[in-house]
Amino acid sequence: MEQRLNCKIVQDLLPNYIEGLTSNITNQAIQEHLATCEDCKKVLESMTKETKEIKAVPYKQINFLKKIKRRQWTIAIRSVVISVLILLGVYYFFGSRDFPVPSNSVSVSDVYELSDGTIHYIISANVQAYISTTTSYNDGITEINRIYENRRLTSDEGKSFVSLPDRWTSVKHSNTSHVTTGIYYEGTGKNDRIIIWEKGMNIPKANAEQEAKYREYLEKKTR
Ligand SMILES: [Zn+2]
Q1: Is the pTM of this model over 0.70?
Q2: Count of alpha carbons within 13 angstroms of residue 39, beta-carbon side
Q3: Cα separations in angstroms, 135 against 29, 82, 163, 205
Q4: Ligand 1 centroid to 40 CA: how many Å?
Q5: Separation CA 185–CA 100 (nearest Å)
Q6: What's the confidence (pLDDT) of residue 206?
Q7: C-alpha 30 – ligand 1 centre gap (Å)
Q8: Residue 34 Cα, ligand 1 centroid: separation in angstroms?
Q9: Locate the Putative zinc-finger domain: which residues (predicted)?
């Protein structure tokens, strides 16, 4: 360009020049001017720096938003975890669930031997609320009875004695060579056991009435 641009015009054009909005001819004139003018060069440098900083802001904002989102997620997850823990805690202390009845709340009565060697017994339990489950596990050698009562952890209901139905346990098994050697009640664990009957124990023989009751039971069973 024949006519050299003066500093004022160049500096007016610089913002557009930096943004790439100026035409090729203007760019060429500005570059020619900058090559010889230290002042405008400095202005360009400071403007470029500012522009970069301005452009850098949205990036920082995005990062900041990401951080906020991450923090919100952390808060949300933490809230869920805390809520679940509170619910579990409430359930633990106030919810009704099954508890094994300890052996010191259980008594065994009417243990006698039938003429065919079968052992009869009745288990009673001193429980609050109600008995939810009774299990009788027999592997052919030992029989283990358990009782569960459904109550709250800190139940303030009064206890009452509940007798379970009669039980007859055959000691000799016709279909296998197994012979039962022990019948137990198990409360809170293996160390909380009551021996109901063990092989070799001296227990009463059934009277006529008890034998009749047993026959009645067998008839019902096979019916
Ligand atoms: Zn200049």
Answers
A1: no
A2: 6
A3: 99, 36, 14, 26
A4: 4
A5: 11
A6: 95
A7: 9
A8: 7
A9: 7-40
